Amino acid sequence: AWSRQETCPPTPSFRETHVKEGQIPTITHDFSNAAIIADGKVFYGSSSEDCVRALDLKTGKLLWKFYCDAAVRLEPTWSKGRILFGSDDGYVYCLDANTGNEIWSFTPATRQRWAINSGQLMSQWPIRTGVTVKDGIAYFAAGIFPPNGVYLCALNVHDGSVVWNNKLGANNSTAFQGQALIDGDTISFPSGRTSPVDAHLSDGSLVTDKKFSYRRPGGGVEVTLLSENVVTYGPYVSGVIFLRLKDRPEKSRVTTIRARSIVSNDDTVFMLKTSNEPAKTTLLALNKKKMLAALNKALDVPAKGYPSVFGKERIAGAEDKRAVKALPEATIWQQDAPVESLTMIVVGNTPIVGGKGFIEIHDDKTGEVIWKTAVKGEVWSMAFANGALIACTDKGMTYCFRSGFKTKPIEHKPEIKNPFEEDAGYAKGAEFALAQTDRRKGFCVVLEANEGQMIHEIAKRTEFFIIGLEADAAKANKARENLTKAGLYGKRAVIHICPPDKAGKYPAYFANLITADRCIKTDLKAFLANEVLPFDYNSEDAYHMLRPYGGVCILGRNQKNVDWEWFVEKTWSGGKVPGWHAIKDAPGYAMVTRGKLPGAGNWSHMYADTANTSNSGDSLVTGIEYDLQWMGAPGTERIVNRHMIPMGPLYMDGRMYVFGLHYITVVDAYNGTFLWEKEIPNSSRVIMALNAAPICVDKRYFYSVSANECWVMDVKTGETVRKLKSPREKDDWGFIASTGKYVV
Fold first, then answer.
1. How many other C-beta atoms are found inside a 10 Å radius of the C-beta of residue 564?
2. Cβ-count burial of 622 within 10 angstroms (0-12 exposed, 13-18 middle, 19+ buried)?
3. Nearest-5° angle of CA 598, CA 602, CA 603?
4. What is the pLDDT, as a whole number, of residue 24?
5. For the packed helices 424-435 and 453-461, what is the interaxial angle rounded to 10 degrees?
6. Where a domain ends, among 593, 613, 647?
7. Low-confidence residues of the chain, pLDDT below 70?
8. How far apart are CA 500 and CA 470, in angstroms?
9. Is 688 exposed, middle or buried (0-12, 13-18, 19+ CB in 10 A)?
10. Closest to 440 measured CA to CA, from 118, 120, 717
11. CA nearest 667: which of 630, 640, 639, 642?
12. Which of 169, 219, 460, 729 is most buried per CB count within 10 Å?
């Protein structure tokens, strides 16, 4: 019937950072947008554009859009004319479903502190469980970093008032991710790699309140109720889905089946059964009553033939052969399905399968494919209501299909155009600011973002991800729309509605460049005459965000006859920011370049330095209380398994050198930005306690062994400037160190 292409495809939190060969991803809830259908509308959030949209179900026309300050990673919830959802900004929002107007918002966090996740800003207490509603109460969890505490919350849907708020400490919390499931008087929260955690609906207390340091088998971000006594969750990294049978009061029993998806109606269980050797996917329809009876009977037989863990045979992440043998006697029909199948829903008794580039509907009596269509991207989310099938893909596509729809489908595509009039002042201001730094990627902050034109000019000239801070909500929303029209919003830039007194929440040291929009267009003479600031954000918050080792903050406008030095020193900086100075050759501009943090050290060799002291000399590290700075790639895909004891990362002057399998990645240590990467053949080594370190770094060069050579690379670009040959050509280069003058 219609399709809609968003300007920016979804930005998953962990898609490329944790999956090894032979495994499947478990944290898949944000691989695509996820939609619901209610009241003749389609509602879905965006992990890249930080918003929730409402579309007309019949036409796909945009009805309204609500922005927040960070990603929306799960589908919203509709309840009696209201839309509820959580965001990575740490808030749960309640909106009027017809207008998109905010009714209330709530965060359980008692302090505001943000971090970076795969290039996006987020609260350290993001809402990644969605919002589950029952009897007028909204339930959710906030936080994915147990050392900071995680909140389990219940709010009154009517006014957002707190019913209960249970803060879990580091020892009894985990990373809650995925839609929660209400099962009787308990609620189950998925947790990604480990099994779901159950809490009492009455007060949020844990059903099993003990330390989570032990390994709890399970994982995935989907938890479903198969029957009154059977909960499924997964899939796990090994490709199995766990089934927890709660039919016996003394103890739940758990079994595993290798499958992509398990869904059911009252009488039938549908399963996308998978196998690895050979790779195969089979769609099964199973009689639910017979299947559960067969599983119960099979689990009465002790499990044998599995690896021993702590002296006892355990199934762990393997497929339970007892469960597999129980399936045939419950099978109604089975059909081959594409290996690329990813997800499934059931409508009545009809299974609908989505996967890589396709959607197909199977006959409810035989399982044969009765309808199939191609789509752009991988289907990770589907919904069906009012005769309409909605599917979302990882390419930012939303499709609507209807039976008997004979007219040409309506295609909603973004129209990319420049929404701004050419302005030489903005262009010159952006170029001059960029001329003060040699960085062209990383993070840029634009204070007083206005309607987004300065952001647009900087984005055209760099690879920076740009965060605009604007206190005026009307200007912020105008900037968001302008940057969306330009094709930049979410992909290259975002706008946060941020009052000046809230700017301290952003991570320390993360911004490579800080500038401002409003002062570019301000008559500074008029402001200076009245000793009034041309913008409201204070200098200490700006300096707090500025990256050491070359971060630049530059403000001003090319305007003569202005006592700018007096302005920055007395009116804005107030002498609190060291190094502020007017630029002599550019009247109207002032700047600061941040240097090394006083007391900061380096870790340039395997044991810190050439003397193997295992001491960086850093005097800033004290205590045990730390906040997360950033997380994301590089992940495990190129890293040698930790059990092989590989070479650890090095650090020098704000750059982190992550050594992989014959490969080096260099990232900005303060914000995680990729700086450069390089294949280095025959360089990896393992069991570092026995083998000499193959890499080291100094202020100018990075050194790596490559068989019998030592490659010398520029630390800024990764360019190989020289290759040193071993004097003994038949032997590989062994120990390596740099004194700054000599290579040892």
1. 22
2. exposed
3. 160
4. 86
5. 50
6. 593
7. 16-21, 209-217, 248-250, 307-316, 518-535, 557-575, 587-588, 624
8. 9
9. middle
10. 717
11. 630
12. 219
Torsion 666-672-675-676 (CA) sign? positive
User: Does 703 fall in a domain?
Assistant: yes
Cα separations (Å) of 325 from 256, 264, 276, 336?
Answer: 12, 20, 17, 19
The amino acid present at 690, given as its one-letter code, is L
Q: Contact 178/29 with Cβ under 8 angstroms?
A: yes
Q: Of the residues 593, 625, 650, which one is the last residue of a structural domain? A: 593
- On whether both 553 and 634 belong to a single domain, the answer is no
Q: How far is CA 209 from CA 152, 176, 254, 334, in A?
A: 13, 16, 19, 42
Same domain, 539 and 612: no
> Taking the CB of residue 193, how many other CB atoms lie within 10 A of it?
18
Q: How many Å apart are CA 465 and CA 482, to the nearest integer?
A: 16
Cα dihedral 369, 372, 376, 382, rounded to 10, equals -70
Question: Pairing relation of β-strands 513-516 and 552-556?
Answer: parallel
Q: How many angstroms separate the CA atoms of 606 and 647, rounded? A: 7
Q: In this structure, what is the dihedral angle of CA atoms 672, 678, 680, 686, given to the nearest 10 degrees?
A: 20
How far apart are the C-alpha atoms of 86 and 140, rounded to whole Å?
A: 8
CA-CA distance, 250 to 451, in Å (whole number)? 62
DSSP secondary structure letters along 544-575? HHBPTTT-EEEEE-S-SS--HHHIIIIIISTT
Instruction: Note the residue count of the chain.
Output: 744
What is the predicted pLDDT for the residue at 566? 56
Between CA 260 and CA 281 the distance in angstroms is: 9
3-state secondary structure of 480: helix
* Pick from 1, 69, 116: nearest CA to 668: 116
277, HSE (Cβ side, Cα atoms, 13 Å): 1
Total of domains in the chain: 2
The chain-wide mean pLDDT, for the chain, equals: 89
Chain segment 140-179, per-residue pLDDT in tens:
999 999 888 899 999 999 999 999 999 998 877 788 999 9
CATH of the domain at 714: 2.40.10.480
Cα 674 from Cα 242, distance rounded (Å)? 37
Q: In which domain, by residue range, is 723 found?
A: 601-744
Residues 589 and 662 in one domain: no
Look at residue 695 and give its three-state secondary structure. Answer: strand
Answer yes or no: do 438 and 581 share one domain: yes
pTM (global) more than 0.85: yes
Kindly list the strands in the beta sheet with 186-191, ordered across the sheet, starting from the edge strand earlier in the chain.
181-183, 186-191, 194-200
Burial (CB < 10 A; 0-12, 13-18, 19+), residue 609, is buried
Handedness of CA 28, 30, 33, 38 (dihedral sign): positive
Only one residue has tokens 């006083």, namely 598
State the residue for tokens 């019937």: 1
